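Late entry, written up from scratch paper. The run itself happened at the end of the previous shift, but nothing got recorded in the book at the time, so transcribing now.
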Amino acid sequence: DKIYETNQYRVREQIMIQFREAKIEDLAGNQLGLIKKRISRNINNLFDGVTLREVHLPEFSYYLQ
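Output as recorded:
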């Protein structure tokens, strides 16, 4: 919790990057697992020695421009 509190903006940035780089097909409900894995991998790389085991996306929606 302490690591997250001091780095929450870096975590948020990594999550936003993954969603921005995702293809439309990746945003389908059954493909969110791929995005979750990428988020987990990037955050684990960001914080050496920390292991993020799971990513939850309680609310998710997107729109096409």
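The mean pLDDT is 82.
(Scratch paper discarded after transcription.)
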